[in-house]
Amino acid sequence: MPTTAPTPAGSRGAHEDHLRSLGLPLMIAPSTRVREVLRRSAGVSAGLAVASSGLSTLDRSNDYAVELLDRVGDDAAEWELVDAGDPIIVLLLVSLGLFAAAPGVGWLVARIVRRVGPAYGTLVGLASATALLVVAPLTFEPHDGPGFLTTSLTVVTVLVGTYVGAGSLVRWAARRVRRELGTMGHMVARVLPVLMLAVLFLFFSAEIWQVMVALSWARTFAVVGVMGVLTVLLVVITTRDDLHDELRSQAPGLRLRMSERVNILLVPVLATLIQSVLFACLVFAFFLFLGWIAVPEATETRWTLRPTEDLGGLLAGVPVSVTLVRVSLTLAAFSALNLAAAAASDTAHRARFVRPMIDEVVHGLAAREAYLRARRRR
């Protein structure tokens, strides 16, 4: 959240920055967003251009390694001749350096653009977009690298994302995650004990283990996805109704563009979904731990009528079974849906956790009015 809101007589740029910090970039006039799209996308374009250079360098290193493998096969003596100065190693190190430098370059370009004037910032943005367009086709081998069509689509995606304020929304969401993590204790103390009364019986039921052991990972994620979609729909519908009632009482004559209506709905919806996702992650970790200490292999085998299946790959050695992970994922998704239902029906929960989000939207509308007054004074 911003530390200080601009005064009504503040500069137009200060009001625009304030709206972006509130997660309301679509409240800014479309003409302003079009005019600033190259300048504001410069950092992302530059960072992606550097990252694409890293990919092409890694691809060249891989080509040299394939050529060497075809030439010497499994001859260990030949492989020992590969030293730190070999092109394979040099290109690999360069690619790792480019990957590591990409975020820093993007941040540095964004800082430079903010410090120079609009005209120079636009030129820097144009140069960054051009680099993103041409670096990959010029540095990759023609037969296996992205062409101009792919990079053109990437540039268009970056520009459109900048126009709709995707970067501002991502930064707002990151701040919101930090904020929700700080207040998570209140929600856990209020919601988790009541939820556990119902979900614990389900967790210790053999039927859910028998269902989940027979599911593939694709079907498991499909089940989780269905509950996730239901959670999003429930949050969107209830939040839309709350906003409609609030706007009708607070600003009955307010006229908003469609994009502005979407933006003021998106902010509380995202805030509620962030709460739900964090809560689901906590429930997932809780059930993994509970299953690890309370459901031994013999009990799981008796419930599922199958031997336990351990995790593989990078997670090999983690002392939980595949079925336990699937059961925990399903119950975590169900818990997120339950939390969304509580936000829609529980008066105390709404007053504690939902009402502040609606108040933030009202504050955002006041910031929009101050911004419009600053534009009219221009």
Please describe what this structure looks like:
The protein is mainly α and 378 residues long. The protein folds into two domains: 36-166, no CATH class; 183-376, no CATH class. Helices cover 79% and strands 0% of the residues. Helix 6 (87-115) runs antiparallel to helix 7 and helix 13 runs antiparallel to helix 16. It is flat. The chain starts with 11 loop residues before the first helix and ends with a helix. The model has no long low-confidence stretch (mean pLDDT 82).
Key features of this structure:
378 residues; mainly alpha; 16 helices; 0% strand; flat
Subunit organisation of the chains: single chain
Distance linking N and C termini: 27 Å
How many individual β-strands? 0
Largest sheet geometry: none
Give the strand content. under 5%
Total count of helical runs of at least 4 residues: 16
Summarize model confidence as the mean pLDDT. Answer: 82
Chain-wise SSE layout:
Elements: H1 12-21, H2 30-35, H3 37-40, H4 42-72, H5 76-79, H6 87-115, H7 118-139, H8 148-163, H9 166-182, H10 184-203, H11 206-213, H12 217-250, H13 258-294, H14 297-304, H15 322-345, H16 347-376
